[in-house]
Specification:
The complex is a heterotrimer of chains A (354), B (540) and C (378). By secondary structure, chain A is mainly alpha-helical. Chain A is built from 17 helices and 4 strands. Chain A has a domain of 227 residues. Chain A is 70% helix and 3% strand. The relative contact order of chain A is 0.19. Chain B has a 6-stranded mixed sheet, with helices on both faces. Chain B has a 6-stranded mixed sheet with strand order 18-19-20-15-21-22, with helices on both faces. A 4-stranded antiparallel sheet of chain B has the order 2-1-4-5, with helices on one face. In chain B, a hairpin with a 2-residue loop joins strand 11 and strand 12. Chain B is α/β, with parallel strands linked by helices and 540 residues long. The radius of gyration of chain B is 26 Å and the shape is globular. Chain B folds into 4 domains: 165 residues, Rossmann fold; 76 residues, no CATH class; 189 residues, P-loop containing nucleotide triphosphate hydrolases (Rossmann fold), CATH 3.40.50; 75 residues, no CATH class. Chain C has a single domain, classed as Orthogonal Bundle (ABC transporter involved in vitamin B12 uptake, BtuC), CATH 1.10.3470. In chain C, strand 2 and strand 3 form a beta hairpin. The longest helix of chain C has 40 residues. The chains are: A mainly alpha (354), B alpha/beta (540), C mainly alpha (378). Chains A and C meet through helix 9 and helix 17 of A and helix 5, helix 6 and helix 13 of C.
Chain lengths: 354, 540, 378
């Protein structure tokens, strides 16, 4: 990729772009890994099951990118704001000792309410910084995460399962959801087919999110939001309130971040606090870009395709490369290079339309 | 005048995407000569200057035909840098000054005086230190030429606009090889006294042996300083004359041109009596639209009429519609059928029964990446709740594609929009068909008053004809009141009942369409003459 | 675009100037107050603090100074300095591998880092020119991307594709560089380079008050001082003037015939090279290379320090850099102790300073975007 990036020629002739070279490369790489996995006689059913779980886990976080892109605020690098809201919801529900569906529901509800409020505040901030949303969003997210670290340390929670064993003050780095709502969605209507475990509930949850978003985008307000994002003056001349649309988009994205992290956590089995959410926006951003979205335009199908490609790739890359390279952990490096390379590609592609 | 021309343009022809904007222009200017170039906007003045200055837009759009000669030698000007080398200087319409730099630094920008030092001897010229003292002296002498008494060490940010203009001129003067100087509508941003200083500076420059091209639409300024005058209209050179043969009314007439054909359609059936039926009353309207500012505009709009708003670009004719429809900040009061319309709120303006076809098709008029049907129905969907499935919450009602398509098909047929179908993306349509979509979008609102802002700009003749005829039909048959803004006076005179001419943001006068070319020309140039025949009820 | 735009634009600049002055003095003042409160609350030994600050001024100032040139050239804060830092670290690993020690080792490392950093800077410049108007976010992502490549090389390729046999550097498996590399060879090489003249130690008693021991890393201070002189010089040259012009307004600069893209790349190359050297200075002071973390952290901390010193993304000077390092590092030293004193939890202080670093960048970016938006939208 590096040599490609440094060559302006490739960037200027729209030909390769229109074919969607990144997707071709990644899909090709994926096929290659699959073939390699077969050659190496690895357990394909396990790899596929694992991929399905990870697709479901990450899907809603990727979906959270759609409203901000649609409303013109670009990629939501401030996703950690929503994630933190979800985590607070999770922590509170846990400290109330709520388990199962009740626990998950309470966490989600609390997360939504918090995310709605904080998302709105963040949206007001974005009004002032139009054009710089990505950079500002990144650092607002970072500082929120760092600020919340202090909160986790000082939180007035006494549940011994949640606080540090030593000292009894401050929440643990990871809170296990076992006995609460660990894998609640995953196991809901779980199906085993030819040795593949399908986490039906989790995928349905993701699917439901996509379906609702799809419906929303076709409503009057959804259309207004899209117009406000892609052609603000056209929208304004049609009586659309641009600020309100941007606020709504950011709020919905933040709310999705909150729900998304809870879906993620129940599947993962832990609530990860402190610095864990710091970089969580990046894989989500990369996924939707891999799906073919740009900084201005995104669709539900791009969310689904992107999530499937990216998560499958990461799931398969780890065991395959470990087998080939005898033990080196390349998946984290691959994640870094692919996701950031993808974001770079989108950033440098530019808007020729202006 | 035995001296030979320093700059000569021969047979310059240029087209943009098949539209010819310049046709065989010949132009000559001698040293010590101030040559005025006059023309309406769109006459091709800017394109001509872009060619002369080697701007990249020209080359990116296929170059031009014809020849440029300097001192009789053909030259190729392929970049602004080359133009500068050849001694062509330009004072731009937009200021090319760095606000954080001092006046002296701006004057010497990229032509800094440097002295070598230890490091530069190793690392090359770019490491030479600046000689601020010498730069200041140069700047001082350039400013002195213009007799401008201002400290050259001041930063440009915060200077009055007029001074910025002089800094620009000083920068050009400072170029030692300056032969030809172009002033592109320099007085547009100046106050009267500043403009006087500018003319004085021009005279001085020409006395130094520099040839000057002076582009403007202020007739009196041209008359004051120019030695000779060329008039451009529709990309053609219609006249060239020496100063002593020029008469201001003649120039005005040439500039506007005789191209009036009255519409074949019947005159307005409504009797034009004094007890008129006013549909819209505009009082004291000021609009802050950059470049098209409107000051204290008053007008009474009669029900069912077609009112034209004309004037040169930059004089506010476009600002009126944009202000009333809430797209740019506006002050004043507007009453429709006696009820106040709140300003600065597009939604309220739309709800009050007005709609607009914007002059900015690409950004305001259309949603480029969406289908024709979406473009046509979007505004009505958002404002009037049309084209939606029933549902409990109005904002969350789903769009009704079938209704949208049906309506779009009707509109496509009515307006003869050439397309592959209602689902075609508007970006892929030709300009004329895009404009028809814009019109369809406004008409879908079923407005009482339609503001059509430059509805025929940049489209082919067939589409133009169709749109004008359709507007007339809407008015005569549908009873719609139409306010049409256009840079083409000819088309205003063809279909309008009355024509308002704007000058510097104010109403210069209201004329009947059959008033003489001279009257129109003089009004557009700010030489006010009271309109005859039509009651000037708009003038407060 | 037309005439009307001019007035709007100049109005915007007025506003920017005004808010600029305001925020420039406000931010350092706020952090100074925070520092003083911290020092009082933590009941810190001033001699200890001053000694720390002296060390850290030497350690970090060079790096912070490397951020200045891109700001002047209108590229904003160069989040891409992590790439320069990587070049420095690559050079350090090579030097350590060949056991070149002392000042010679450091000099060799600088020489090795130079072509690497020029290359990296040139590539960065090319990418940033493709992303005009969002250089900062692109630079940041480019840093992350480069970090992936860096890890790929140091964690996977070294010992496999790149032959290397050095048990002190490699992980036990023989593949990949260790997480921490002891830089004993070049440790303090520059700090103590002038020990032959004076070892920089200040220690005496002022009546009953003991002063010191403070140790000034004299060599590093000297080099940093030279850099300050160099940057001031650069700003007075033709190149510096062109950079300023490009930073003010790229369009106007290009009309005046300045090769804007080339100037922008030059600015980034300078910055990257300086960052590479700055990272060498930083690490020779620390004495250990945190192979996979050092560069990431310095990027963020250097930028935060510059901003704390009152710089904005459009205006930054040497004074901002030095003041920023002073304030930021004071806070850095003080906050864990203050956290311990107030809450009884030292980690709170640690998180607090991370929060501050991120927070100050966020606030600076908001201010920057806010100020920039006005002229842009007009």
């Amino acid at each position: 990729m590096e040599w490609l990036k440094s060559r302006p020629i490739f960037w200027q002739n729209g030909l390769i772009e229109s074919i969607g070279i990144p997707r071709i490369i990644i899909a090709g790489f994926l096929v290659f890994l699959f073939v390699l996995a077969v050659v190496l006689k690895m357990d394909l059913t396990f790899l596929i099951s694992d991929s399905l779980v990870r697709i479901g886990m990450n899907g809603l976080l990727v979906l959270a990118m759609v409203p901000t892109i649609t409303c013109g605020a670009g990629l939501n690098f401030a996703l950690p704001v929503g994630i933190l809201c979800g985590l607070v919801g999770g922590v509170v529900s846990m400290s109330l000792n709520l388990r199962g569906w009740v626990g998950f529901g309470t966490a989600a509800l609390l997360g939504i309410v918090l995310a709605w409020i904080l998302g709105y505040v963040y949206a007001l901030l974005l009004d002032k910084v139009q054009g710089q949303e990505m950079m500002v969003g990144t650092y607002v997210g970072f500082s929120m995460v760092a600020g919340m670290c202090i909160f986790w340390l000082a939180a007035p929670i006494k549940n011994p399962a949640m606080v540090f064993a030593i000292g009894g003050q401050g929440l643990r780095y990871t809170l296990t959801l076992e006995n609460y709502y660990c894998k609640l969605l995953n196991h809901f209507l779980e199906i085993k087919l030819w040795g593949i475990t399908i986490p039906t509930g989790l995928l349905m949850f993701f699917g439901l999110g996509c379906a609702l978003m799809h419906f929303f985008l076709k409503t009057r307000v959804g259309r207004a939001m899209a117009a406000a994002g892609s052609n603000p003056l056209f929208a304004k001349s049609s009586g659309v309130n641009l600020n309100a649309m941007r606020h709504l988009g950011v709020v919905i994205s933040t709310v999705l971040g909150a729900i998304g992290i809870l879906a993620y956590a129940q599947s993962y089995g832990f609530l990860q606090l402190y610095t864990a959410p710091l970089y969580m926006a990046f894989p989500a951003v990369a996924s939707i870009l891999i799906g073919g979205a740009s900084l201005q335009k995104a669709s539900i199908s791009q969310v689904v395709i992107g999530t499937i490609l990216f998560q499958t790739l990461l799931t398969i890359a780890l065991p395959v490369t470990q087998t080939v390279l005898s033990g080196a952990d390349v998946s984290e490096i691959a994640r870094m290079i692919i996701s950031n390379g993808m974001i770079l590609y989108a950033l440098t592609r530019g808007e020729r339309r202006r | 005048m035995s001296e030979s021309a320093v700059l000569e343009l021969i047979g310059i022809t240029k087209d943009y995407y098949g539209v010819t904007v310049l046709k065989g222009i010949d132009l000559k200017v001698k040293p010590r000569e101030i040559h005025g170039i006059i023309g309406e906007n769109g006459a091709g003045k800017s394109t001509l200057m872009n060619i002369l200055f080697g701007m990249s837009v020209i080359h990116e759009t296929g170059g031009f035909q014809g020849e440029i000669r300097i001192d009789g030698e053909p030259v190729v000007i392929d970049s602004p840098a080359r133009a500068m080398e050849l001694g062509i200087g330009m004072v731009h319409q937009e200021f090319m000054l760095l606000p954080g730099f001092s006046i002296a630094e701006n004057i010497k920008l990229n032509r800094e005086i440097t002295c070598s030092n230890v490091i530069s001897r190793v690392m090359g010229k770019s490491m030479e230190t600046l000689d601020f003292k010498a730069m200041r002296q140069d700047a001082r002498s350039a400013l002195d030429h213009l007799s401008i008494n201002i400290d050259e060490t001041l930063p440009v940010a915060g200077l009055p606009v007029g001074y910025m203009q002089f800094v620009e001129i000083a920068r050009e003067i400072d170029k030692k090889n300056l032969r030809v100087m172009v002033f592109d509508e320099p007085s547009a941003v100046l106050t009267e006294s500043e403009a006087g200083l500018l003319l004085e500076a021009m005279r001085r420059l020409s006395e130094k042996g520099i040839a000057i091209l002076f582009i403007t639409h202020r007739l009196d300024e041209v008359m004051a300083v120019a030695h000779s005058i060329s008039i451009l209209r529709d990309g053609q050179l219609v006249a060239r004359m020496e100063r002593d043969q020029a008469r201001i009314d003649k120039i005005a007439e040439w500039m506007v041109g005789r191209k009036v054909e009255r519409s074949v359609l019947a005159k307005r059936p409504v009797a034009e009596d004094e007890a008129e039926d006013v549909i819209l009353e505009i009082h004291d309207l000021s609009v802050e639209m950059p470049g098209e500012v409107v000051h204290r505009f008053d007008l009474k709009l009669r029900r069912g009429e077609i009112l034209g708003i004309g004037g040169l670009a930059g004089h506010g004719k476009i600002g009126v519609a944009n202000g009333i429809m809430g797209l740019y900040p506006a002050r004043g009061s507007v009453f429709k059928d006696g009820l106040p319309v709140s300003l600065n709120n597009p939604r309220q303006a739309l709800l009050s029964g007005m709609a607009m076809v914007s002059e900015d098709r690409r950004r305001v008029g259309l949603w480029m990446d969406e289908s024709i049907e979406m473009n046509i129905s979007f505004t009505a969907m958002q404002v009037q709740g049309k084209f939606l499935w029933p549902g409990p919450l109005e904002r969350l009602r789903r769009e009704d594609r079938t209704a949208m398509r049906e309506h779009a098909l009707t509109m496509i047929k009515d307006l003869d929009i050439r397309c592959t179908g209602p689902q075609q993306i508007v970006r892929h349509l030709s300009g004329g068909n895009q404009q028809k979509v814009c019109l369809a979008r406004a008409l879908t609102m079923k407005p009482d008053i339609l503001w059509a802002s430059e509805p025929t700009r940049g489209i082919d003749i067939g589409a133009k004809q169709l749109i004008l005829d359709y507007l007339v039909r809407c008015s005569r048959e549908g009873g719609m009141t139409i306010v049409m803004t256009s840079s083409e006076l000819g088309e205003l005179r063809r279909i309008c009942d009355r024509i308002v001419i704007m000058y510097e943001g104010r109403i210069s006068g209201i004329l009947p369409p059959d008033a003489s070319d001279m009257e129109f020309g003089m009004m557009m140039a700010g030489k006010y003459q009271s309109g005859k025949g039509v009651g000037i009820d708009g003038m407060a | 675009m037309k005439r009307g735009g001019v007035e709007v634009r100049s109005f915007g600049y007025f506003l920017q100037l005004r808010t600029g002055v305001f925020s420039r003095s406000m931010v350092p003042a706020f952090f100074a107050v925070l520092c003083i409160i911290g020092v009082v609350v933590a009941k810190l030994d001033l001699n200890y603090l001053i000694n720390e600050i002296f060390t850290r001024l030497g350690r970090n100032t060079f790096l912070v100074l490397s951020l200045l040139i891109p700001v002047v050239a209108g590229l904003g804060l160069n989040f891409g300095i992590v790439i320069g830092a990587m070049a420095g670290q690559i050079a350090l690993v090579i030097v350590t591998h060949y056991r070149i020690e002392g000042l010679t080792g450091l000099a060799v490392a600088m020489l090795i880092a130079l072509p690497l950093a020029v290359l990296f800077g040139w590539l960065t410049g090319l990418v940033l020119n493709k992303a005009k108007g969002r250089e900062m976010v692109t630079g940041m992502i480019l840093g992350f991307f480069a970090n992936g490549l860096y890890q790929l090389i140091f964690l996977v390729l070294v010992g496999t594709v790149i032959p290397m046999n050095n048990p002190t550097l490699l992980l036990p498996s023989g593949i990949g560089i260790r997480n921490t590399v002891d830089l004993i060879g070049v440790a303090n090489a520059l700090d103590r380079a002038l020990d032959g003249i004076w070892d920089g130690l200040i220690m005496f008693d002022l009546g009953p008050i003991p002063v010191g021991p403070w140790r000034i890393p004299l060599g590093t201070w000297l080099v940093t001082g030279l850099l300050c002189g160099g940057i001031s010089f650069l700003m007075k040259t033709r190149l510096g003037q062109q950079m300023r012009a490009v930073g003010e307004d790229g369009h106007i600069a290009s009309v005046a015939g300045i090769p804007v893209n080339r100037i922008r790349i030059t600015a980034i190359v300078y910055s990257t090279v300086l960052a590479a050297w700055g990272q060498l200075i930083f690490l020779q002071n620390i004495g250990t290379l945190n192979t996979y973390n050092s560069h990431e952290q310095i990027g963020m901390f250097s930028i935060a320090a510059l901003l704390v010193g009152g710089a904005s993304t459009r205006k930054a000077g040497i004074g901002n850099a030095i003041l920023g390092v002073f304030l930021f590092h004071t806070l850095f030293v003080v906050s864990p102790l203050a956290g311990q004193a107030v809450f009884g939890i030292p980690q709170i202080g640690e998180y607090f300073r991370v929060f501050l670093a991120y927070g100050v960048i966020a606030v600076a970016l908001v201010l920057h975007a806010w100020q920039n938006r006005l002229p842009a939208k007009g």
